[in-house]
Amino acid sequence: MRIDIHPILQFDREREISFLYNGNKIKAFEGETIASALHAAGIKVLSHSIKLNRPRGFFCGIGKCSSCLMRVNGVPNVRTCITPVEDGMVVESDVQQLPSAEFPGSNKEDISVDILVVGAGPAGISAAIEAGKRGVSVLLVDENPMLGGQLIKQTHKFFGSRKERAGTRGIKIAEELEEQVRELEKNGKVKILPGTSVFGYYGGGSSHMLGAANKMSNVMYHINAKKVIFACGAQENMLSFPGNDLPGVYGAGGVQTLMNVYGIKPGKRVLMIGAGNVGLIVSYQLLQAGVEVDRVVEAMPRIGGYSVHAAKLRRNGVPIYTSHSVKEVYGKDRVEGAIVAKLDENWNFVEGSEEDVKCDTVCLAVGLTPSARLLFQAGVKRDYIPEAGGYVAIHNMEMETSVKGIYVAGDSSGIEEASTAMLEGKIAGLSASISLTGRDSSTTAKMEEYIKTLEEMRRGPFGSKAREAKRKILEEASNEGI
Ligand SMILES: Cc1cc2nc3c(=O)[nH]c(=O)nc-3n(C[C@H](O)[C@H](O)[C@H](O)COP(=O)(O)OP(=O)(O)OC[C@H]3O[C@@H](n4cnc5c(N)ncnc54)[C@H](O)[C@@H]3O)c2cc1C
Ligand code: FES
């Protein structure tokens, strides 16, 4: 399943290693995660559900859904999609026993910092760069071993504003952002902890206490931060249909991770659900990776994504069926096919319109929900804003929430785009720095410039949803005196 030839990416695999999976030796390359190495070996069932013993496989690929939990070196419930594989590792798919190893968090480290940034996607890195340039100490933490968030798998040239790097590939933007923040790290202005999950918020006042853990180095961090910026991104939405938990049903981001980060095909033939930009772009990326796309089905009566992306698919012979959806996915312990059918104007399946699609992969590109659990644990005021993708932290124009010293940026604050995530990150980084060092004419002018650019980016028909989401959030913030 490993991709050798790709029109954009070159997979220079690192040292070959091996590990044990349920007693069998599996080949891997350093730098791969456990779940991706298992996929490359054709192993899709990673664990079983506790109650009904149903097979479970990779879904999100970014540590958000728990469907890849396995026992690693005796430690249960390890998210194998974000855990790098190591030579000689022992991996087991049975997670139902008590741990046979000691909990590996015995090395403790205390860190006190001016600003903690949780999440090193475009929003978090931009926040860290902005704050790091302003003479405050910054800690940037990400649970992924690589920096860049969703950008590290986006091979297409970005749409959006030229001012915010439209026309540049996402992977290139990630490289540029990483270079800039590594430069600040070299100068001692930003400390970076990749592969480290922030798992809890433990109280605040004049400063905020959080816990984080790095499972590779077995270090548990007690973090004390004067200000915290949450830039945790989003998680993929699930659709409700029989068979939606079978291994082989993936979120679009999970498919991108396997394919574009680790160079591993998710399967041989894919049914794509959703014809928004994500569904269209990922379908094209699947073709580039040498995977067949049977068709794209879209529940809405029209295609939601840009026509340029739809045209590319059609030119490659991939049909797009609007007013259609998936009724059922079937298979014994992995996807073997799916039933799709037409939807009427009341969103009911039209009887007799069913078609059996032979595929081994079903990819869901049906939207994202902001990742805001840590913010809610910290007690910020929240509300359900459909245009923002779900429950979000109410925040003001400068990205501060109802809890003093806690900020939010990027998809965590409402689903949008990398271009706006970077600007929100800059605003949050500037705003948190100002609260520590004071406001002057230069920071006031910078803030005005960022806010104006952000507003400009949301103009036009494609920004209407984000505009409405932010209008509601800001109105509520103003009513709450935030
Ligand atoms: C297929 C596809 C195509 C897209 N195309 C475009 C496009 O053309 N133009 C555009 O502007 N946008 C595009 N986007 C959207 C864009 O990628 C996202 O809006 C953007 O990445 C959001 O940035 P972020 O920093 O908020 O979140 P993310 O990029 O998701 O980063 C969040 C980071 O937080 C980390 N994290 C989360 N929780 C924790 C925790 N508890 N502890 C430590 N770390 C944590 C995660 O590991 C992750 O690295 C596309 C998205 C997809 C899926
Ligand atoms: S948490 Fe690993 S696939 Fe979702």
Average pLDDT reading: 93
> From the helix content, strand content and strand pairing, which structural class follows?
alpha/beta
Overall CATH class of the largest domain: Alpha Beta
Enumerate the distinct ligands: flavin-adenine dinucleotide, FE2/S2 (inorganic) cluster
- Provide the CATH topology of the largest domain: FAD/NAD(P)-binding domain
Query: Kindly, what is the distance between the CA atoms of the first and last residues, rounded to a whole number of angstroms?
Result: 51 Å
Estimate nothing, just give the exact number of structural domains.
Answer: 3
CATH architecture of the largest domain: 3-Layer(bba) Sandwich
Question: What attributes characterize this protein structure?
Answer:
482 residues; alpha/beta; Ubiquitin-like (UB roll); FAD/NAD(P)-binding domain; binds FE2/S2 (inorganic) cluster
Please, could you describe this protein's structure?
The chain has 482 residues and is α/β, with parallel strands linked by helices. It folds into 3 domains: 16-99, Ubiquitin-like (UB roll) (Roll), CATH 3.10.20; 107-234 and 369-479, 3-Layer(bba) Sandwich (FAD/NAD(P)-binding domain), CATH 3.50.50; 249-368, FAD/NAD(P)-binding domain, CATH 3.50.50. It has helices at 34-40, 122-132, 170-186, 252-261, 277-288, 307-315, 373-377, 418-437, 441-457, 464-479, and strands spanning 16-21, 24-29, 47-48, 55-56, 69-72, 75-79, 90-92, 107-118, 138-141, 190-193, 196-201, 208-214, 219-230, 234-236, 249-251, 269-273, 292-298, 320-322, 324-330, 337-342, 355-357, 361-364, 368-370, 382-385, 390-393, 406-408. Strands 8, 9, 10, 11, 12, 13 and 26 form a 7-stranded mixed beta sheet that branches. It has a 5-stranded mixed beta sheet with strand order 2-1-7-5-6, covered by helices on one side. It starts with 15 loop residues before the first strand and ends with a helix. Residues 58-61, 63-68, 79, 81 line the site of FE2/S2 (inorganic) cluster (FES). FE2/S2 (inorganic) cluster binds next to loops.
